[in-house]
Amino acid sequence: MTGDIINAEQRHYDTARSLLPLLEPLLLRAGRIVLAVGGESGSGKSVTAVCLRDLLLEADMNAAILHLDDYFAFPPATNHRRRLEDIGRVGMQEVRMELLQEHVDSFRAGATLLKKPLSDYQADRITEEVLDLSDTRILIVEGTYSLALQSVDCRIFLTRNYMETKAQRLLRGRETDDEFIERVLAVEHAIIAPFAAGADILIDKSYQVMLQNSAFQHTQL
């Protein structure tokens, strides 16, 4: 998303680096790989994905990121106004999940170019961009509902909930401290929290990494 602020600190790189030994059996496999990084608002999804991509690039493993925020049907301010009209609109139905799944499947099938939506936070509009995936072997899909995608090789879930992430959310400058946003996040929490049970790797509120399912390391899709 254009205008989003991602402040990567050493501790975030340390967390991403601790993921690498767990991912190593998967990364040694032939072919393209898809990783999903999910969790609630402010949990650290974006910064974890960015740091992981940077470390993979340093290791000569070409990686790219798809941000789920780009796949919302309406741009941020417009989407917020729609939520004010009806909080029942909050959920996965706000996101073009079928398009995101199509793009993940296209990557798996060997697509070299991907035309995708690009959300502009400041201008409150959605444009398009073309990603060159010709040399990309690892696709990281980051976002609140990313663990709902099919054909993912590893699901990484950050367990911090919206009550634990308030200070971090306010620092991003994308949210104000108001009661309605907290209501929205409570609705999202009920949807997102169950994804933890299906995650392969968990990252707790102290950014400690825990392997929950070792089967992903050797499963061939």
Biggest sheet strand line-up: 2-5-1-6-7-8
Structural class: alpha/beta
Q: How would the global form be characterised?
A: globular
Tally of distinct domains: 1
Helix content: 25-40%
Rg, rounded, reads 17 Å
Second rung of CATH, namely the architecture: 3-Layer(aba) Sandwich
The CATH superfamily name is P-loop containing nucleotide triphosphate hydrolases
Number of strands: 8
Beta-strand residue fraction: 15-25%
Give the SSE string.
Answer: HEHEHHEEEEHHEE
Output mean pLDDT.
Answer: 91
Q: Mind summarizing the main beta sheet? A: 6 strands, mixed
Which parts are unreliable, with pLDDT below 50 for 5 consecutive residues or more? none
How many angstroms does the end-to-end distance come to?
A: 30 Å
Report on this model:
The structure is a single chain. This protein has 221 residues and is of the alpha/beta class. The chain has a single domain, classed as 3-Layer(aba) Sandwich (Rossmann fold). Helices cover 34% and strands 20% of the residues. It is built from six helices and eight strands; from the N terminus they run H-E-H-E-H-H-E-E-E-E-H-H-E-E. The strands form two sheets. The protein has a six-stranded mixed sheet. The radius of gyration is 17 Å and the shape is globular. The model has no long low-confidence stretch (mean pLDDT 91).
